[in-house]
Design a protein that fits this description.
The complex is a heterodimer of chains A (274) and B (449).
Chain A: H1 2-33, H2 38-41, H3 55-63, H4 66-97, H5 103-112, H6 122-132, H7 138-163, H8 166-174, H9 179-208, H10 211-216, H11 224-229, H12 239-259, H13 261-269
Helix pairs in contact in A: 1-12, 3-12, 4-7, 4-9, 7-9, 8-9, 9-13
Chain B: H1 2-26, E1 36-43, H2 46-61, E2 65-72, H3 74-86, E3 94-98, H4 101-107, H5 128-133, E4 135-136, E5 139-140, E6 143-155, H6 156-161, H7 172-182, H8 203-213, H9 230-246, H10 256-264, E7 270-274, H11 277-281, E8 293-297, E9 310-316, H12 324-334, H13 337-347, H14 358-362, H15 364-369, H16 373-382, H17 406-421, H18 427-444
Parallel strand pairs in B: 1-2, 1-3
Antiparallel strand pairs in B: 3-9, 4-5, 6-7, 6-8, 6-9
Helix pairs in contact in B: 17-18
């Protein structure tokens, strides 16, 4: 019995590694390709052993200023996350602790806004951006990202707030805490792991968003997605340079995700183990 | 808990830094605002990258102009610039557009007419079909940066071995014969490589030329789709057969880049595609067959018209540009004879943007390094966008139809053709479905009842 248990564990472990490898493989391959020459990058059969070169990274840096794009990505994704949290915390508080009979419906309606294909509202949003002068500005992109991430952020914070026992908040109120004190000193510290993982998810979603960032920015506010898009080409070989650009674009968020993976995993599985 | 504190530290730093940035953005504008800023939207390909690099010379000569580059992949660029121009967003001062967009956008009044060009620009030096492609009612709306047609590439060494001499004007019948002779999959050489990847600018670009030369066309004079005609059936049968018999495996996912990689690594006996590949195939740095590649005009079947396509990437100024004078200054510089000379001085004549000016092809230095020059020029000059098919057409364009709906129709038909090539559909069925798609689009957009 014991041996079969052990071999089962082995098998599950092996399976987990295999699945993780399959999921990670495209990123690994991109990373490897970024050190190949353009001709080696498209060679059939694919080359596993080759002399690595940093040429692509040098070319990419020479053609576009990576740091401007990266800085825009950081500002826009952090900014949008801060705004989304500022709006979502009060909304989730009201829905979690003072639900009305329409709360469930409101939550579902919020989520349903995510089902609209973004291209359907591209022209109206573009015209709004033009008339308000927000095209190609970071603040314009922050507003859009805040709005598109808001449903998910509200949903997640709502479910974390639901986990907090009502009695604790009631005890506060008995002690004479105002609503503000109750939220800031009691509720937020209790739900902090959840809020942190929500913030992380929101940053990652904003970082990866490519439709609006490509369509609403030109030069000043262009984030890393625009940086990547400038290295794909219909005529001529481009895979190695594109891989180098992509590696540079995902590196910050990959490192960030790696540092914070404990919070992320905890937050994402929080509701599932109820 | 420690990593949590770290995360909090990082978050505080980022929010702080962001606030500083936002405050900075609200403050007085920096020095560069006094200069005229030109925002240039362009596509990522070799010639454009060179232009971006050399534009430092332009900025040095025009210290009051500051160039801001937006480089995007072709499809994203098209979507991005169309959105901006159609909704008068005013984000760009110079647009890179193709021969397909130029007349459509000009008709809608989205582009500034370029009828006030300086005499030294020598507008008559532009190759006629290219100039026609960028004009609407005789007025030029975009200046060509590079131009291309299509031609036949073949492996001279393999052809010599098989005892084949390529005549001045090869036919598709001969091409099929040659494909069978040089096809040798066991040593990794396929007789014929062609585009198979679906898309109006991918497989349909080549297929449309094949249909044209077989006597077919997209629409008759009443805008009735003609895809269920014997001409289309002949052309598509030929295409599917030759690729299935002598083509590389998985041909239905090969586009220009994939075929370029195949040919330049010696895996294709022949390839019919854009003339712009000639410079790449003849360049030993990126091609293993640079010494062995032969060039010939695109083959013909029964009609010479429309057997080779015409495309150009050109620079245009949208009506919404805030600095049209500076923009015109830039686009005349980037498409001038001086610019071509500048590229030649910097990186050699073989690297100059091809297909725009007659003077380039008359230059003995260019002729010396570009063995393909005369074939390219003849191909471009032979392309007739006004009458691309055997019978009169209501549209302009050799490998496209100059109506906005064509992108969608072409791409959907392209998918059906790829399905036929991959064997998921018979040719007959694919064409029947394509005809239905085209009819539906044309009915919905009011071209036909």
């Amino acid at each position: 019995m014991a041996t079969s248990n052990k071999s089962n564990q082995w098998l599950i472990g092996l399976l987990a590694w295999a699945v993780a490898f399959i999921l990670f493989f495209p990123i690994l391959w991109m990373f490897v390709t970024s050190f190949k020459t353009e001709v080696a990058a498209v060679a059939t059969p694919p080359q596993l052993f080759f002399t690595p070169t940093l040429e692509n990274y040098i070319d990419v840096q020479a053609r576009a200023s990576y740091f401007n794009y990266a800085w825009n990505s950081v500002i826009v994704s952090v900014g949008a996350t801060v705004f989304a949290l500022l709006l979502a915390v009060p909304a989730a508080y009201a829905m979690a602790f003072f639900p009305s009979k329409r709360t469930k419906g409101t939550l579902l309606w919020m989520l349903s806004t995510k089902m609209l294909p973004p291209v359907g509202v591209l022209v109206p949003i573009y015209i709004l951006g033009r008339d308000t002068g927000l095209l190609d500005t970071r603040i314009g992109l922050i507003i859009i990202y805040t709005l598109i991430n808001l449903p998910i952020v509200v949903w997640m914070i709502y479910s974390f707030f639901k986990e907090v026992p009502k009695e604790i908040l009631e005890a506060d109120r008995m002690d004479g805490a105002t609503t503000y004190q109750e939220v800031v000193h009691v509720l937020l510290p209790l739900a902090l792991p959840g809020i942190a993982s929500t913030a992380l998810l929101s940053i990652i979603l904003s970082w990866n968003e490519a439709f609006w960032s490509l369509n609403l920015t030109t030069f000043d506010a262009a984030p890393l997605t625009a940086f990547i898009a400038s290295f794909s080409s219909p005529q001529g070989l481009f895979w190695a340079k594109l891989s180098a650009a992509s590696t540079m674009a995902i590196a910050p968020i990959l490192i960030f995700g790696w540092i914070s993976q404990k919070q992320l995993v905890r937050g994402l599985t929080f509701g599932a183990v109820k | 808990m420690r990593s949590f504190r770290l995360a909090r530290g990082v978050a505080t730093f980022l929010v702080g830094a962001m606030l500083v940035q936002l405050l900075h953005a609200c403050g007085p504008q920096s020095q560069s605002a006094e200069k005229t800023q030109l925002t240039i939207a362009t596509v990522n390909n070799g010639d454009m990258v060179v232009m971006q690099d050399l534009s430092r010379n332009f900025e040095a000569d025009n210290p009051d102009i500051d160039l801001r580059w937006v480089v995007l992949e072709e499809n994203i660029l098209r979507q991005r610039t169309t959105t901006d121009v159609a909704s008068q967003g005013g984000q760009f001062d110079v647009l890179t557009i193709g021969a397909y967009e130029a007349p459509i956008w000009a008709k809608r009044g989205w582009l500034k007419p370029l009828d006030q060009l300086p005499a030294e620009y020598d507008v008559d030096d532009l190759i006629t079909p290219i100039r026609q492609g960028l004009s609407q009612d005789g007025t030029l709306y975009a200046l060509p940066f590079y131009g291309e047609s299509s031609m036949l590439y073949y492996r001279r060494d393999l052809f010599e071995e098989a005892g084949i001499t390529v005549p001045e004007n090869p036919t598709y019948e001969q091409v099929e014969q040659w494909a069978s002779q040089v096809n040798d999959p066991s040593s990794g050489v396929y007789g014929m490589c062609l585009r198979g990847k679906p898309g109006w600018g991918e497989n349909m670009a080549f297929l449309t030329t094949l249909v044209n030369t077989n006597g077919g066309q997209w629409f008759d004079m009443d805008w009735q789709p003609q895809l269920n005609t014997p001409e289309w059936e002949n052309a598509v049968n030929y295409y599917v057969n030759i690729l299935n018999e002598y083509g590389p495996p998985g041909a239905s996912s090969n586009g220009f880049n994939e075929n370029l990689a195949l040919f330049s690594t010696g895996k294709c006996g022949m390839w019919i595609d854009a003339t712009v590949a000639a410079g790449l195939l003849a360049n030993p740095e990126v091609s293993e067959v640079s010494e062995k590649v032969g060039f010939a005009p695109a083959p013909v079947a029964s009609y010479p018209n429309g057997s080779n396509w015409l495309w150009t990437w050109a620079l245009a100024i949208p009506q919404t540009s805030r600095s049209p004078e500076a923009a015109q200054k830039f686009i005349t510089w980037a498409t001038s004879k001086e610019y071509i000379q500048l590229v030649a001085d910097q990186s050699g004549w073989v690297s100059v943007p091809p297909g725009t000016r007659t003077s380039t092809y008359q230059n003995p230095e260019y002729q010396a390094v570009a063995p393909f020059a005369s074939t390219v020029l003849t191909s471009i000059e032979a392309a007739d966008i006004e009458s691309p098919a055997a019978s009169p057409t209501p549209y302009k364009g050799v490998q496209y139809v100059d109506i906005p709906e064509f992108q969608a129709i072409g791409t959907q038909v392209g998918q059906r053709m790829a399905a036929a090539l991959a064997g998921q559909d018979s040719v007959e069925q694919a064409l029947r479905r394509s005809q239905a798609v085209a009819e539906r689009f044309m009915r919905h957009t009011g071209y036909i009842e």
